[in-house]
Amino acid sequence: MFHRHNHGIFYLGGLVFAVAVIAAANMEGQNPATVESQGVDSIGTAETIQIRGQLVCLAEAMHDLYRADLPANHEHLYGFKGTDGRFYTLLRTNLSEALFVDKRLHQKTLIITGRTFPKTHLLEAIRFQSLRDGVIHDLYYYCDTCAIRAAAPGDCVCCQAPVELVEKPIKLSPLSD
Ligand SMILES: [Zn+2]
Ligand SMILES: [Zn+2]
User: Fold this and answer.
1) Are 151 and 131 in contact (CB under 8 A)?
2) 101 C-alpha to center of ligand 2: Å?
3) Domain extent listing, the chain
4) Looking at CB atoms within 10 Å, which of 5, 108, 116, 140 has the fewest?
5) Alpha carbon of 163 to ligand 2 centroid (Å)
6) What spacing in Å lies between the alpha carbon of 129 and ligand 2's midpoint?
């Protein structure tokens, strides 16, 4: 491995440096930060995006586009197709549950705000709105009796009556003079 002397010197130099860094970190009562920060760099950071498009079954979309095998009784694999033609696989979370279970949302043009992760086309939806007649609408579920908002359909946490889907045009804040 070390054919030349200077390789050994570099190696020793690096080792001494690393020991010095660890010693310095320990003196401050902290764990060595170098290893941890290298880890973060290599996985990258999630990116917040806003995409307009429609909910689709990815299995059917890939079948239509590329003749991907589609079993007769397949389980839908829900994802989002942006107007730019990009496909995203949706993570199923408390905030995105409605996108999976409420078929009414499958008919709408949606604007999803969420995060994608490096080297993936996974989408973690944090917020979704609809676009109707050129107007952005907030989408949420609501119990009139208790005035409680919910992210997904189901029974009201308070009175147990089913919450209703609300599609409400967003109020544009009036321009100040
Ligand atoms: Zn399907
Ligand atoms: Zn209620």
Assistant:
1) no
2) 20
3) 5-43, 47-169
4) 5
5) 7
6) 23
Would you state the structure tokens that stand for residue 122, as one six-digit string?
A: 């996974």
In angstroms, what is the span from residue 167 Cα to ligand 1's centroid?
A: 26
Q: In angstroms, what is the span from residue 70 Cα to ligand 1's centroid?
A: 8
The predicted-structure confidence for 81-114, as pLDDT tens digits, reads as follows 999 999 999 999 999 999 999 999 999 999 999 9
User: What are the DSSP calls for 31-47, one per residue?
Assistant: --HHHHHHHHHHH---E
pLDDT digits (tens, 9 = 90+) for 121-177: 999 999 999 999 999 999 999 999 999 999 999 999 999 999 999 999 998 766 654
What whole-number distance in Å separates Cα of residue 45 and Cα of residue 98?
26
Distance 150 CA to ligand 2 centre (A): 10
